[in-house]
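Recap for those who missed Tuesday's class. We walked through two folding examples back to back. For each one, the amino acid string is listed first and its predicted structure tokens come directly after. Nothing is annotated here on purpose, so try labeling regions yourself before you check the end of the notes.
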Amino acid sequence: MPSKAVKLFYHTKKIYVNKKRKQEQAANKFTFIDLFAGIGGFHIAMHHLGGKCVFASEIDKFARITYEHNYKKWSPEIFENGDFNQDITDPRLDYNSIPNFDVLCAGFPCQPFSHAGLKKGFGDTRGTLFFNIEEIVRQKLRAAKKQNDVTLVPRVLFLENVKGLKNHDKGRTFATIKAKLEELGYEVRAEVLNSKHFGVPQNRERIFIVAWHKQLVKAQDFNFPWGIDKKDSPIFDKEERDKLCKPVSVGDILLDDDELTKLESESGRTYTISERLWAGHLRRRKEHGEKGNGFGYSLFKDDSPYTSTISARYYKDGSEILIDQSLSNKRPRKLHPIEAARLQGYPVDVKNKKERFEIPVSDVQAYKQFGNSVSVPVIEALAKEIINQLLK
């Protein structure tokens, strides 16, 4: 429990906003940082809602290429001022040098906390990447107290991870995360949401964690949207979600035959899988069937309601999402990277170049990047509610 002195500090200081923050808020609704940023699914959503990115971090060199290519036009300062960090775990990085922010965004990797805790005792997050999130917030809180400036306190933490995080290690991993955030003064809520309910035809379940500082944000709860309807409005009734959510089908994200043919001609490659690979898929499907399990490739048509979850390994054989071409007497094909981008809700079709997402890397890297990404429409729907419920 916070001490009386800490409570008094936040109570007396929360009504004041320093001159710099006022200037930022005049131009933007809020500021955010983008940790474990990948190719910026959080960045797109937050930018579209009036957010300003003041710091980002991504270690993969190819993802960094895609990130800078797309967001230098929106957030030139982070690239010019050295605020596009390569390794958030680098001991030479002073977390106090990270610009102040309202919202911390992170699709952080999940490592087993139990292994890190063998020597230090369970409940210690050192040795995991969540520790870096925790430490950034902790240092901002220390700076706020030292400088007697409540505007340095991050108001909201917005995190994403795999669905299994909630039950990982018999629930102890999530319990540790929740306890650490509560220790820092945050109220924590989490739900598992599915991309297929947010306007993209992909069966992708992920856990989303929203936490707000209890002394700065007086919300009693956070109402998660379970999907969006035909008008892109949030659906808050889980029981009504399947009936009301925006209808989608795999055909929504597919290139038409002429577009695909043109792209294949320009690149000198085909996305139709080889005879050898197709034979391997058929053989493995048969072997798995004989063993009584359902493993094997997954085939989809235009009218399929959604695909399987695209993964970072999609570039290897495309087995989780193959597009049926039997009507054209062809073997199945893999998704084109443009289709993979659409499947994750990236704005690759926007005519305005300043708003359009572009793919500056090879197909292999693009598949890895989209497979590792968040689904943009889910992030945007949640971010809207964070603004409405927690930041106003």
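Example two. Treat it independently of the first, because the proteins are unrelated.
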Amino acid sequence: MKIKIIILNINIEKYFFKSSKYIIIKCIIIFFFIITIFIKFNQNLVIKIALCTMGKNEHLYIKEFIDYYIKLGIDHIFIYDDNDKSSEKFSNYLNIEEKKYVTIYENIKNIIFNQSDAFTDCYQNNKNKFNWILMVDMDEFLYVESDKLKNYLIHPIFNKCDFIKFHWVHPTDNNNIHYENKSLFERFQRPYKKSIFIKSIIRGNISNLKYWVHSPYISPIKNITCNNIGQIIKYEYMNFEGYEKINIKKAYIIHFNYKSTEEFINKFKRGYSNWFGKEYNNFLNNKIEDYFRDNKITKQKIEFIEKELKLNLSYYRKKLNE
């Protein structure tokens, strides 16, 4: 009987120590898992991101724009309102919760002469308050693979970067002639066309930075420019890069440049956002050329544009019949 008890004690002892060993290992794994989550969570709390934009008569789209970027993880949105004084205010289209994320600068025309000035002003006023500042128009939506911009930016590959360039992709008009009261993402879906044009996000606290429409004026010696996967790239142009450098892995800008034919035309009827002045007509003709290059030419589109803009599009009628 004594022998059995001793054997039993020995077996219990072996089992206990064996189990304890596995429990300790499990506890260590769980501990490191919790620490990792804690660190990542705190990084997301510490990093702050702002967005700067300028808009004119974007009332149909402003709510979708703001809700999209709040969900993406933007902490605050600065809007330079380029509307005419008679236009309805952007703030009338936002609910109380959305307004917490937004600062709107109204009646700017006498102090802000163009979009470059607006973006530069926005950066200079907020560079010490935010880790990163994204510069986009109200028809541009930054897509990141993780759906959370902060998770994307805290990756170590971007530690060296002062600027990150994102290439545009363009949805087509999906042969929609008229506006529909649906979200942009419902109306204009893939496939997207790649573009050489870019927009940028800028690290905070950079001295003497001036911004143009798509990218900052920078010195390649002082500042490091990266692409969307963290590779250092040679700075070539402020607005675009060559076709061979287009990269849309991990992140890119979905640019709803055209929308429907009606919206494309209305964009130019209202005048550009405090930008082109006397060059407007020539710019419009060039944009019609871009529109028919990227979208299907149809009789209905030609007739609609001719009627609304009082233009003769015989060149495109000829191309349609070829």
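Answers for example two:
The domain at 49-255 is CATH 3.90.550 (Spore Coat Polysaccharide Biosynthesis Protein SpsA; Chain A).
The first helix runs from residue 2 to 46.
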